[in-house]
Amino acid sequence: MEGIVGIEDEADPKFDIEFGKKVTEEQEMIYDQSFNIENICAELDRPIHVQEVIEAVKRLKSGKASGNDEIVAEILKKGGDQVAYAVYLLCVKVWKEEKLPKE
Length: 103
What we know:
The structure is a single chain. This protein has 103 residues and is mainly α. The chain folds into two domains: 1-45, no CATH class; 50-97, no CATH class. It is 50% helix and 0% strand. Helix 2 (50-59) crosses helix 4. The longest helix has 18 residues, at 80-97. It starts with 16 loop residues before the first helix and ends in a 6-residue tail after the last helix. The mean pLDDT is 83.
């Protein structure tokens, strides 16, 4: 894994230990605050609707490289209702389970 930026290895001279600690502390604070009832936003805590997914897919920019999932926007855009519905089901699954699927 030599030369890969972003690997959290404190022995790596490129690793910024203080920055790593700060990020970890902020993540822990955000996690702790997420359980505070005062921080709940009812509008953001409602289930997603399939129409939101369809509109989001339409707004994707074409001609861009794929992300980590190796899916380009054109596939999602040209896939029509069936692909949009599959993305919607995936979003619902992630929302309910609060984690990304491994595959």
